[in-house]
Design brief:
The complex is a heterodimer of chains A (428) and B (579). With 428 residues, chain A is an alpha/beta fold. Chain A has eleven helices and 19 strands. The N terminus and C terminus of chain B are likely disordered. In chain B, 34% of the residues lie in helices and 20% in strands. The N and C termini of chain B lie far apart (79 Å). With 579 residues, chain B is α+β, with helices and mostly antiparallel strands. In chain B, strands 5, 6, 7, 13, 14, 15, 16, 17 and 18 form a nine-stranded mixed beta sheet that branches. In chain B, strands 1, 2, 9, 10, 11, 12, 19 and 20 form an eight-stranded mixed beta sheet that branches. A three-stranded antiparallel beta sheet of chain B has the order 3-8-4. In chain B, strand 21 and strand 22 form a beta hairpin. The chains are: A alpha/beta (428), B alpha+beta (579). The interface between A and B is large, with 86 and 69 residues.
Amino acid sequence: MAIEDDVLVIGGGLAGATAALAAADKRMQVRLVSYKQSTLRHASGLIDVLGYTPAGDGPLVDPFDALADLPEGHPYERVGLEAVREALSFFDEIAGDTYDGGHTDANALVPTHGGTVKPTARYPVSTAAGLASDDRDTLLVGFETLPDFEAPLAASHLEAAGAPFAARGVTVRFPGIVRDDAKVTRYAHLLDQDEAVETTAGETTAREALADIVRSQIEDEARVGFPAILGDDHANAVRADLSDRLGVDVFEVPMGPPSLPGLRLEDLLYDALEDAGVRVTTGVPVVEYETDTDRRIDHVVVDRNGTEIPHRAEQYVLATGGLVGKGVRSERKRVFEPIFDCHVPHAADRYDWFVDDVFGDQPYARFGLPVDRELRPLDTGDEPEFSNLRAAGAVLGGYDFAAEKSGSGVSLATGYVAGQRAGTEAGR
Amino acid sequence: MWLSVVASEGMARDTEVLVLGGGSTGCGIARDLAMRGLEVTLVERGNLTDGTTGRMHGLLHSGGRYAVSDQASATECIEENEILREIAGHCVEETGGLFVQRPEDSDDYFRQKLEGCRECGIPARVLSGSEAREVEPYLADDIKRAIEVPDGAVDPFRLCVANAIDAETYGARIETHAEVIDLLRDGDDIYGVEVRHDSGPGKRTHATSGTTEEITAEYVVNATGAWAGQIGAMADLEVEVRPSKGVMTIMNVRQVDTVINRCHPKGDADIIVPHETTAILGTTDEEVDDPDDYPEEQWEVDQMIDTLSELVPILEEARTIRSFWGVRPLYEPPGTGTQDPTDITRDFFLLDHADRDGVTGMSSIVGGKFTTYRMMAEDIADHVCEKLGVTATCATADEPLPGSENIATLEAGMDDFGLRSPVARRSKQRLGSRASEVLETDEPNPVICQCEGVTRAEIKDAITQSGTDLNAVRIRTRASMGNCQGGFCCQTMANELHPEYDEEMVREALDELFQERWKGERHALWGEQLSQAMLNYALHATTMNRDHDPASATSTVDFAAFDDGRAERDRIDGIRGGR
């Protein structure tokens, strides 16, 4: 017996979750299956839409101005400008007060842990007080045992980038961390639970001890930034508590993997999926598919701990990610999409997959599926591979999300459109 | 003190012996001569090991490879192999090696190989196919049998640097980033070189970048290997070096713990060398015109995997990290006329230009191989001493290299260093006898490079020696050389430069390292490694926006035009009643 749903979404990252939520919004029965850990844990948690044009112009103050001029085949061009706006509103509703930036079309500039600034349309509320486009003087605090964030260097870098404020960095020891290689989640939990810690002044709590160390470092800065380890489940409370104790605004600087803001975004999405009644199964790969008529998927086969279980749906959304998420794979002589073997355009010679400058115009960064305006993957003859399969997110080709800073926006917009269309079609 | 006889000609010379080239041979010569009490200066165009030494497969030959075709070389190899295990134990991993025979490989050649090993004094033992697979479980099922020999893995970077440091201890001047732009020739005598200084990293005092310097010497040794012809040409001397390129492909894990050679007469892609946490596949052999500019070709990488999978089938599906190419300094006397570079002897040649060309003051050293670098250095040092009338004898075979003493003490005390033991053990191997000095720190010592387990203390130590040259830090520590190819740790390595070096210098150092890592990674861009490359690109471009860093851009950013979050904050403050 096959498991039956109206819409089956394959992939559990930002695009897949958004697609499932958008389909559920159409009152459809939706299931989401995912195999690998989502790449959200690698991501900064920022929702960028478009920071630079494909030609490299930017940082763009208003991403929407540039969205109208994108080349044919770019995912944004496929879905259209209005869909991008709708998708962002959809996200704003899901995110509620956990994200900021929806009050304006303008991008914000967020300091990165390397000390540069990055244009983004939405940002976690934990970073809101730290925007580099805000002119208040800033103290950055790093920790001796967190080598990814060298606060004094990041502060100098921000000044070199022309940030409109004085930035200063200090490095301190994090109270209660005894191992030099503690994971970032250990820092977050210490603060979440406000655990008891030993200091030279006797036993105290983690938040108080941290505030005590930082307080004496503040000169006349109006805000203090920490690497993004300020709590996990109770991040707002941790930040508010530190802010009260220090008497200044407190913010987080987004970090590399494993990224707590990325993990918090994942939690937010999965809570929303649960609220929307989406059935979620993780850790299960799709291993096969069957078509009924020649261009329609009848069902897919999911491997659940060695048992092959058919899943049938009216409509399918493929949101398995790009090269990083393994929705697009490669061998020495070919690039391919591993589940449905959808067409992935690429040069025959793999030495044409890259250019010599690491930050140059990299062909490999654009690997992915070409789609029609319905987001259906196209075969080599520009015909839809299947009538009831849509693709969303990084599995799509024709854009370089890293250069454009468009990864989250494309996942949201295409996930939203694919999910909505799938939901509408399934309801017919 | 030894008195210069030649200086009595009236010209004061800057140094007695000037060695050109900072590879294993040059550094070996510098150490040998300095230990004999001579005043030595070594100049190197780039950094130590930049040429062929830093671009080899890391095989410490037992000599087995040459036991049929070139028994003189084979005998030298086993002798030097044994010496290096003594004087540089911390740079050598005694992996052992196997010459494996496939069903289609000749029985007769197998027998010749075995006899050849025995004739050259190379310990050799025959293993059946199943015995060989007990040693190396991933060997192909149809491997017939194998000859076990004492091949090893050697770290050419540490070995070369150890020679240089020791030479300095004995008073040598080691001048890196100093490119020879001219040989100083007066009539039929070469009396020095002119170098152009480049900005050099680290605490070393370098001359101002772009300035030139004439360095005069009693005697010049051209130890520039594949570049020896270019040096010779500066004084109208012909040195018939035949540079031959070879590819090395690095795997993400160590599929084998023993050096695996194919037991056949000759061929490309017939060796696998386990090396720290990786295995290196080698190699090709193609003559090139210019050792600085030659094609790095896809077929070479494909051949490594396709051919060596016949010996170790899992290589077909395994993940490669990157590939790099090196250039052998092959040489054969004029008129030999060998067509195929694989047939050119691996023996070395000392060319005294006085005898050959009637030009005094310089010899060139060409050919040879890494394993016998010390013996070559000894021969050349003997030759130089004879020229200069010095009677001191060689001591390099008996004196341990820096870092090799106290290994036993360190092994016993390793668990006390405040590091988890696998890390400590690897750090110890890298640092030799300096381990406690570097690792016993009261400061927090987090791991900077997760793939290779390199800690902050090691990075800091390498920085004190190499400064902002993060590629040199990488070579000293192996940081950024694992699976992620620096995607995760390039930036953290650069962070350690601050505050000693300012923000701009750190930024430049990071850009340089990241670009360099990409350079080798490109040749392994498929499968897992392409996925990794995209992740690395995303981390550096998406998360950090390093590709559009306003600090490095020419135009300025109008920060005031962007969302400053204030409206939102004011709204929230309004709702929450302010703070």
